Amino acid sequence: MTDFVARPELGLAWVTGASSGIGRALALRLVKDGFTVVVTARDHERLVKLQHEAAGPGKIIVLDGDVTDPRDMERILAAIEYEHGSMVLAVLNAGVYIPVHGEDMHREDFEKTFAVNLHGTVNCMLPAVRHMKVRGHGQIAIVSSVTGYGGLPTSAAYGATKAALINMAESLKFDLDKAGIRLQIINPGFVETEATAKNEFPMPALVSPETAADRIADGLKSSGFEITFPKRFTYAMKLVNLLPYGLYFWLINKVTGWKARPPVTARHAVDVLKRDPQAV
């Protein structure tokens, strides 16, 4: 039953990283669609605020948790299944974006990004698959990004995790299809969130979290493996990544203006001088 589509009358939805951005907007949209939505993040106050704001035939259940702790995710899945009801939909959205500059790299930036974006997804997926296998159906959607298609400035850590998520989902689909578990990958373009506010280059086709939530909710009901939007941008990115590397790097440099920028250390020095002309 690989074409399983989760519906509110069949069970609960679970959204990780629901305290802000896409996760928050999607939780609100799913409530409007009638789902009881379990929301998970580390920020309890934001989750409670989300619970109070939710309006619709569905409702929000708050279960705090840290996706980087596998035991915590096992606890949450047990609480969902044994205290609240069967989970039929999991949207694994939790993620962080830490800009990385090649001339000023720090190990902790890579480690934190991998811990949340990649390992955190695995920590959620394993118990979710195990519970869904018991009843022979379920739907899991993993939030990746078009940055997983190819390297972009400052995305050395973030893009690496998103590329890994795409490959992981593609690989697992073969076996999860046979288990009756529908697996999808979500590859948004640029969405206006706290994370993208850190980007240091133009973001074409920027969409709001609410628009992203609508596109994802529609995609969850579709038969496609990939949910990607806005297509005029994400399909262009797919094509760009088919170019020979020489053309690819030239085009990305031209579009972002990255090659013309001074090294990050020089930019920092300029910022210091602006604040204190006597600093040098």
TrEMBL record:
Protein name per its UniProtKB record: NAD(P)-dependent dehydrogenase (Short-subunit alcohol dehydrogenase family)
Family as reported in the entry's similarity comment: Belongs to the short-chain dehydrogenases/reductases (SDR) family.
Organism: Rhizobium herbae
UniProt keyword list: Oxidoreductase
InterPro entries the UniProt entry points to: NAD(P)-bd_dom_sf, SDR_fam
Keyword Nucleus: no
